[in-house]
Write a structure and sequence with these properties.
This protein has 15 helices and 15 strands. It is of the alpha+beta class. It has a single domain, classed as Orthogonal Bundle (Cytochrome p450). The longest helix has 25 residues.
Length: 408
């Protein structure tokens, strides 16, 4: 066995600050990201199916084709506990389910993320973006994370669930309280259930007493549905709501922060997108590829699988490393370069196959609208100081990002 037959098993870290484009820099990143990128490259080249004894032992796939293929083979690589470091994460619907049960719930939920549904939601989200952007522009600078990147996704989720607009402030507070508790893998699953579950359970009780139009209200629509001839329990509806909040806020907030950092540290990209705003959707895809917000999800092998000379045994846990796959030179030419008009760009930031992210249309909408409004309302964005980055067991992102805004 060579030294490339295993890997460190440390939590996956998103590629926030590769050495070649760190610009003004950020505390808490530095060499760790460079080391992680080097680890990705080493594993892709020398040991694309790597084993670690950490967290009870698991395999990691790092090549694009392998990760995408495994994601598209739920019969062989089953969902369950979505995160390696938290095998007892708890029931999350639909992410923890497998076909055919999974398809039943996705059919219930997909219509609320359809193109027409997003078009109806866009003016509301644009209003949120402008409302939180204007104080930053008036002040000329500020912390983009606390003033913009955190509240906008919270308000978008509140709008999606037809909550009162004031509900987002409670949601932001709950998220902040949760983050202060840390990312202890032995506690985080229970904490998510307690923090978000209590909030959503109250909303579910309200909807049960006073349902809204099921065509436009997700929770009411789920309550009105039947699975196997039976209505869904309040606990199941709450689990669905908890996943929407837990999966839809931090990932989008982190992606917004990463996108703003890239704009602030790349004047050429700023200038291009100001001159050609029609390229913003393509730029969003590239930002998601190069700074994958959720770099790794877990599967469990259901039968023995041979891959690159290694045998993944039935019952083994397998990490699908989307962050490494999105930097694979076999799939992306010049993978470390941010090419805002890259085409094709079949990145895996939202996964692939039946478990491809349910909320991807909402995340794309938020990112596009945010960049459109920021670039249209400013002449220049740059760093006003060093940001701060926190690395967790699931996510990595800015906790502060001071930016300076020069208006026209």
């Amino acid at each position: 066995m060579t030294d490339f037959d295993s890997h460190s098993g440390s939590p996956s870290v998103s590629d926030w600050f590769p050495e070649e484009d760190r610009g003004g820099g950020a505390r808490g990143s530095g060499s760790r990201s460079a080391q992680r990128l080097a680890e990705y490259q080493r594993l892709r080249e020398r040991c694309p199916v790597a084993w670690t004894e950490d967290n009870g032992g698991y395999w990691t796939l790092t090549r694009y084709d392998d990760v995408r293929d495994a994601a598209r083979r739920p019969a062989d690589f089953a969902s369950g506990a979505p995160f390696i470091a938290m095998p007892e994460f708890g029931s999350q619907i639909p992410i923890s389910l497998n076909p055919p049960e999974h398809a039943t719930y996705r059919r219930l939920l997909n219509r609320y993320f359809s193109a027409p549904a997003m078009a109806r939601l866009e003016p509301t989200i644009r209003g949120f973006v402008v409302e939180h952007l204007e104080p930053l522009l008036e002040a000329g600078e500020g912390d983009a994370i606390t003033a913009f990147c955190q509240p906008v996704p919270a308000r978008a989720l509140s709008a999606l669930l037809n909550l009162p607009d004031s509900a987002y402030t409670e949601l932001v507070k709950e998220i902040a309280d949760f983050e202060r508790m840390g990312w202890d893998p032995n506690k985080v699953g229970a904490v998510i259930a307690q923090v978000f579950g209590a909030h959503i359970a109250r909303v579910v009780a309200e909807r049960r007493a006073r349902p809204l139009d099921p065509e436009s209200d997700l929770l009411s629509g789920v309550m009105a549905a039947e699975v196997d001839g039976r209505p869904l329990s309040d606990d199941t509806v709450t689990q669905i709501g908890v996943q929407l909040i837990a999966a839809g806020h931090a990932t989008t907030a982190d992606s917004l922060g990463a996108a703003l950092y890239r704009l602030a540290t790349n004047p050429d990209i700023q200038m291009t997108l100001r001159r050609f705003p029609e390229r913003i959707p393509s730029a969003v895809e590239e930002f998601l590829r190069i700074e994958t917000p959720l770099p790794e999800l877990a599967r469990t092998a259901t039968e023995d699988v041979e891959l690159h000379g290694r045998t993944i045994r039935a019952g083994d846990r397998v990490a699908l490393n989307y962050g490494a796959a999105n930097r694979d030179p076999e799939a992306f030419e010049h993978p470390s370069a941010c090419i805002i008009d890259r085409s094709p760009n079949d990145h895996l930031a939202f996964g692939s196959g039946v478990h491809k992210c349910l909320g991807a249309p909402l995340a794309r909408l938020e990112l596009r609208v945010a960049l459109e409004e920021i670039l249209a309302r400013t002449a220049e964005i740059d760093l006003a100081g060093p940001g701060t980055v926190t690395t967790g067991i699931m996510l990595s992102g800015f906790t502060s990002l001071p930016l300076r805004f020069r208006t026209r």
